[in-house]
Hints:
20% of the residues lie in helices and 37% in strands. The chain is globular. By secondary structure, the chain is of the alpha+beta class.
Amino acid sequence: xxxxxxxxxxxxxxxxxxxxxxxxxxxxxxxxxxxxxxxxxxxxxxxxxxxxxxxxxxxxxxxxxxxxxxxxxxxxxxxxxxxxxxxxxxxxxxxxxxxxxxxxxxxxxxxxxxxxxxxxxxxxxxxxxxxxxxxxxxxxxxxxxxxxxxxxxxxxxxxxxxxxxxxxxxxxxxxxxxxxxxxxxxxxxxxxxxxxxxxxxxxxxxxxxxxxxxxxxxxxxxxxxxxxxxxxxxxxxxxxxxxxxxxxxxxxxxxxxxxxxxxxxxxxxxxxxxxxxxxxxxxxxxxxxxxxxxxxxxxxxxx
Length: 303
């Protein structure tokens, strides 16, 4: 049975930038092995499978069932696959190009809203799961993971595990020179991540290339078969929660977070990720939104 296949670039201001995504629809009868094999075959950071089609529509509760695979494993959540898949659903499966699509992922329901930009384009925004804060790790250990000198890390801020659905280790760096010098040591990476759920490592510095942006980041996930990722919505959502909790910018502690993050420049796939976050009214939680543009690249058929 032939199944529609869509290729899109997510967090991209133009095609052939941002993070590549393959979306297969009408995929309910594909086996786990077939899904994993195609994800490995195409080799993108993630491939998604929508387990319904335009004729059958969403589930009775209005959500769209989606599974996410890296080249190595199925994962419960990822940011750019959520936005890219939501765009494919609203363009090709849902009636009337709705302003909101709710994905039913392994991590739970994730709503994606479409908002107009001043330039006439659209930005898709996902509301991620409430963040959970985990261990704080040794700066020296993460310097080893990233192949950096310990002085390249900003020790004013913690190295911390944060999760909004997929745990990430947030590593604050002293400057962009350190960011550009990263050379991941796989043995050190395995030693730090081996007994932890957190397999993604996000390195961040407040020295972007573009003055319109606020931070520059790089993300590494060798465990999932992704040596480096050009744009990572899940890890940047974790960064948003980290910024609210720990600072790292000039924002007043009482202000809502609204920042722009650049990623992927070292890979030749410049990406732009929008982050918004705020403390909830009872000050016991943080709401995280991650936004970006999606560019259609190609359509075809999975045989």
